[in-house]
Design a protein that fits this description.
The complex is a heterodimer of chains A (156) and B (707). Chain A folds into two domains: 14-46; 50-135, OB fold (Dihydrolipoamide Acetyltransferase, E2P) (Beta Barrel), CATH 2.40.50.140. Chain A has two helices and eight strands. Chain A has helices at 13-45, 52-58, and strands at 47-51, 67-73, 79-81, 86-92, 98-104, 116-123, 128-138, 147-153. Chain A has a five-stranded mixed beta barrel. Chain B is 63% helix and 12% strand. In chain B, strands 3, 4, 5, 6, 7 and 8 form a six-stranded antiparallel sheet that branches. In chain B, strands 2-11-10-9 form a four-stranded antiparallel sheet. Chain B has 707 residues and is of the alpha+beta class. Among the domains of chain B are: 1-184, no CATH class; 557-666, Tick-borne Encephalitis virus Glycoprotein, domain 1 (Sandwich). The radius of gyration of chain B is 28 Å and the shape is globular. Classes of the chains: A alpha+beta (156), B alpha+beta (707). Chains A and B meet through helix 1, strand 1 and strand 8 of A and helix 15, strand 1, helix 16, strand 2 and strand 10 of B. Strand 1 (47-51) of chain A pairs antiparallel with strand 1 of chain B.
């Protein structure tokens, strides 16, 4: 067992312990503060990631809260007003239940029937107001397992 | 040819396994011939993987589409340059590339330390070759052999996943020869994205070296600071590449992805950030072990975590476990990575616990006002940012596991928690260099702090009081004073002043002692204390980066409008006033590489004066059917004007534009350059230095080890 040469004198055990305890308490307080920050921020920013069916099942508990919904685009030709940048389309869940979507922004290139959409925004019980649209479309690229993605954001 | 490549790959796998077994046995039995044999095997692995990579590049260049990988990532229309870079364009190739880099590092370490530090070499071979064997096994198709037994056991999903791994072999042959390949994803055809993966991989792979030496130190019980001194430069180089990889990735995202940002807290970004955070903590805390023989367990823990995160990071980017903007495939690779990370991590932790007795601290913390105390706090904060990132990245997985409901936390979560922690780190960065080791007297501390503090307060005061500077502290479009931001500018000034004072004091002392001119003294000062002054430059880079982050986080403005030809939109920069953009013309033209380029011309005006003509465009890759938005940018030191063509109607009669003003963003890139130059200076080798720091302390230890 080798010990490196130590050029510093080590204080007596008792004195040492008192000081170390102070550092431990300090460190512990900092750690607690950070944990608190994490918990508080998680509570205020976490959003459900739901399917269309789950969204309807949640009912009014999620009205006006930020959620993320995934579904399949159903419209062959979405309704788009280019002048005011208002886009209306529908997404459907696995059982075919559909959700009307309203988006204020440019029309994504990949918005095609059967494209998988991940929408972020709020649901008021009738229409989903999307803030961002992420589209996944069939592609030939292996690395994304047959998926290319496009993300668009609403006008603020 | 492909068969030859595959043979090289398989042989490399066998030899890597052999090397690790032989080195482990040689170490235990003190059999020098076995260790020598393991060393030669490790060198052979590097040679074989070099051959495999050369053959893969040959196949890519010659358009051998019968090879599945070549057909996936190249096509006839692609320029040769992109064909070569397609080596890391997809999963199989990039894992091969990763393994190749790892094998070169492994070989270099073994050769470099065969003469000196040989006590560590056997274990270093074991660690590097096991890591290597794992990566090579993923692309060698051997895991597909498990498919049949798994099927027999009734595990059909697992069997399916393993069977799919057969095609992960970069030399996998199709049953037919396709006429043409798919081609590289257009998003990846940007030079930032071309050098980003190799640079990042160099960083990842580089951290395996300090980890290997740490494990070697534990195994051989040489737990002084020797392993740290040996790997100091390796660690710095790894960290340099990781930092560069992160910066390049940000730059690429900003210039290519066309959303006006550079960091989205995407899982793939986080995967590269997390080892950087723990690695940065490690770089700082090893200095305390070198100076004071403290924090030995802590340093071991940090490098173990960093290594785990490097492998875990590769796993996240390669498994698609967390849905991501650029997530990759779902295959058997994910579970295998997870098992590998878990096994190496558990082994390392158990080993660490077993050696706790030899890792006792040689001194204790004396005072809050000491450099080691500040470094400890710095470590806590880096680890906290790491934990925040880890938590946020895995939150979807955790919430699904625990609550049965997938939930996410977005960028606001990370910004809310990591933002203040980063700000606190900047504070420490200003104070730490002023703190002496052990304990600072109050008078000395006051004397050191007074001028930087005066500078910081003066800047904050000026920003608050001078009307012409108001825009730097007020939220755009409101009268709301951003108090924390205003204070933060003062803080940045404080940090810059402490760094400036350090340089000034050093130069003054040298000039007095040697009579050199100022410039000569500065150059000599830096070149004789590379680590210290390189470190200060890194800190200066961080300050500039922070300035860019503050500018883009708090003062960015954006607008989006549909314009008919001849119409204008106005965007008001919070720092420099209004820009008027007028939509002039529209064109769609064929471009090289099978692209149809649609562009719109916009006249940029300011106070009635035309200052620029910009052309945001939209490239459509015909073969792949993929679109790509090319932003138009006007760069100045104050800000970027960043414009995207978001859509158009009736052949361009009207078009939608999205415009951003990105205040101070270029300071981020300038800071990045300063940061990299600083790291380069700190890591630059010095022969005399090395001899002094390595051989001398090595002697007593080696003598002791030989007893």
């Amino acid at each position: 067992m080798t010990e490196m040469v130590n050029d510093f004198e080590v204080p007596a055990r008792g004195a040492l312990r008192g000081k170390q305890v102070k550092f431990l308490i300090g460190g512990g307080l900092i750690a607690l503060a950070i944990v608190y920050l994490i918990v508080a921020a998680t509570r205020s920013t976490a959003a459900y990631f739901l399917t269309v069916e789950e969204l309807y099942a949640k009912g009014d508990t999620i009205y006006d809260r930020n959620v993320r919904v995934s579904g399949r685009v159903t419209d062959a030709e979405p309704d788009f007003n280019a002048r005011d940048l208002i886009l209306r389309f529908h997404v459907a869940g696995a059982t075919g239940q559909t959700l009307p979507v309203l988006f204020n922004g440019p029309r994504p290139d990949q918005l095609r029937p059967d494209a998988e959409a991940i929408l972020e925004g709020k649901f008021d019980g009738r229409i989903f107001n999307a803030q961002t649209i992420l589209l996944k479309c069939p592609s030939k690229y292996e690395e994304e397992k047959g998926v290319i993605e496009e993300k668009v954001e609403a006008v603020r | 040819m492909a068969d030859l490549g595959y043979a090289a790959l398989l042989l490399a796998l066998v030899l890597a396994v052999y090397a690790s077994v032989a080195a482990a046995t040689g170490e235990r039995r003190r059999a020098a011939e076995l260790v020598l044999s393991a060393r030669n095997a490790a060198l052979a692995v590097a040679a074989l993987l070099t051959i495999a990579v050369a053959i893969e590049i040959y196949l890519l260049l010659s358009g051998d589409f019968r090879t599945f990988y070549v057909a996936q990532v190249t096509n006839r229309a692609m320029p040769d340059f992109f064909k070569v870079t397609a080596l890391w364009g997809s999963q199989a190739g990039s894992l091969l590339f990763w393994a190749w880099l790892m094998s070169l590092f492994g070989a270099a370490v073994v050769l470099g330390h065969w003469g000196r530090m040989r006590v560590f070499v056997p274990t270093v071979i074991v660690v590097t070759q096991i890591t290597l064997a794992f990566f090579v096994s993923l692309i060698s198709g051997v895991w597909a052999l498990l498919a049949y037994p798994l099927q027999l056991l009734g595990q059909s999903t697992a069997a399916q996943m393993m069977a799919e791994m057969e095609t992960l072999n970069p030399f996998y042959q199709l049953g037919f020869t396709p006429n043409d390949g798919t081609g590289l994803n257009p998003l990846l055809r940007h030079w930032g994205m071309i050098i980003h993966p190799p640079v990042l991989y160099l960083g990842f792979v580089g951290f395996v070296v300090p980890f290997a030496f740490a494990i070697a130190a534990l195994v051989t019980r040489q737990t002084g600071d020797l392993w740290i001194r040996v790997t100091r430069r390796w660690t710095l180089v790894a960290w340099l590449f990781l930092s560069m990889g992160l910066l390049l990735g940000m730059w690429w995202a900003y210039g290519v992805l066309g959303w006006g940002g550079y960091w989205a807290w995407d899982p793939v970004e986080n995967a590269a950030l997390m080892p950087w955070l723990t690695g940065t903590a490690f770089l700082h805390s090893v200095m305390i072990q070198e100076k004071r023989g403290m924090f030995k367990v802590w340093n071991m823990a940090l490098i173990i975590i960093t290594y785990g995160l490097v492998i875990f990071g590769t796993f996240i980017t390669r498994s698609g476990v967390v849905s991501s903007v650029h997530s990759f495939a779902q295959s058997g690779v994910g579970p295998l990575f997870l098992i590998f990370v878990a096994v190496t991590f558990i082994y390392s932790v158990v080993l660490l616990f077993d050696r706790l007795d030899s890792l006792r601290s040689e001194s204790v913390l004396d005072s809050m006002f000491s450099r080691e105390a500040i470094f400890l706090l710095n470590n806590l904060l880096f680890l906290a940012v790491f934990f925040v990132t880890f938590w946020g990245t895995l939150f979807p997985v955790v919430s699904e596991l625990l609550a049965g409901q997938k939930a996410i936390v977005g960028p606001p979560f990370f910004n809310q928690v990591a933002g203040p922690l980063f700000a606190a780190l900047v504070v420490l960065m200003g104070i730490a260099p002023l703190m002496p080791w052990r304990r600072a007297s109050r008078e000395r501390l006051l004397r050191m702090v007074v001028w930087p503090a005066v500078g910081g307060i003066a800047v904050t005061g000026l920003l608050l009081l001078v009307p012409g500077l108001r825009q730097f502290t007020v939220l755009p479009g409101t009268q709301l004073r951003l108090v924390p931001v205003t204070l933060f500018y003062g803080l940045l000034t404080f940090v810059v002043a402490t760094i400036g004072l350090e340089f000034w004091r050093g130069v003054r002392t040298r000039r007095r002692a040697t009579g050199e001119g100022s410039l000569a003294a500065l150059v000599a000062l830096i070149s004789h204390n590379r680590r210290r002054y390189g470190g200060y430059l890194i800190h200066l880079g961080v300050v500039l980066i922070a300035l860019g982050v503050v500018g883009t986080s708090f003062f960015k403005v954006e607008t989006q409008r549909n314009l008919a030809r001849g119409e204008s939109l106005t965007i008001v920069s919070p720092l420099t006033g209004a820009y008027t953009l007028t939509y002039l013309s529209f064109s769609t033209l064929p471009a090289p590489d099978d692209v149809r380029r649609t562009g719109a011309s916009l006249m940029v005006q300011r106070d009635g004066q035309t200052i620029d003509l910009i052309q945001p465009s939209h490239d459509f890759y015909m073969t792949q059917g993929q679109a790509m938005t090319i932003p138009a940018m006007r760069h100045t030191l104050a800000e970027d004007l960043y414009v995207i063509l978001a859509g158009w109607e009736d052949g361009g009669a009207s078009a939608t534009f999205k415009a951003f003003v990105e205040p101070l963003v270029n300071w981020l890139w300038i800071g990045g350059l300063v940061f990299i130059v600083g790291t380069g200076i700190a890591a630059w080798p010095r022969r005399a230095d090395e001899r002094a720091s390595l051989v001398e302390p090595a002697m007593p230890v080696r003598a002791a080890a030989g007893q």
